[in-house]
Amino acid sequence: MTGTSDGTTSPVHLHLGDVSTPQAAVAALLSPVIGKTGESETILNKLADESVVTYQKLIQLNACIKIHLSDVGAERDIILRRGMLERLLQL
Length: 91
Prior knowledge:
With about 90 residues, the protein is mainly β. Helices cover about 10% and strands about 30% of the residues. It has a 4-stranded antiparallel β-sheet with strand order 2-1-3-4.
């Protein structure tokens, strides 16, 4: 992610459903975006419901990734970036 600041982090969640769904269920908590690098990297083996996830299952999942301003308070509803998982896996 570009435009991040050193010393900050932004929480990243894998949400079920479309990016336009405001209260979509969280399928997995991903590693936060580190402000210094603007990057987030997660090794994902299980979803929040403890089900094992493989790459094949992941590409079939109707889900999106949302990068939030914060984990708490009103700022958790502010989405900095978002995208459909299917499209992001093609990058």
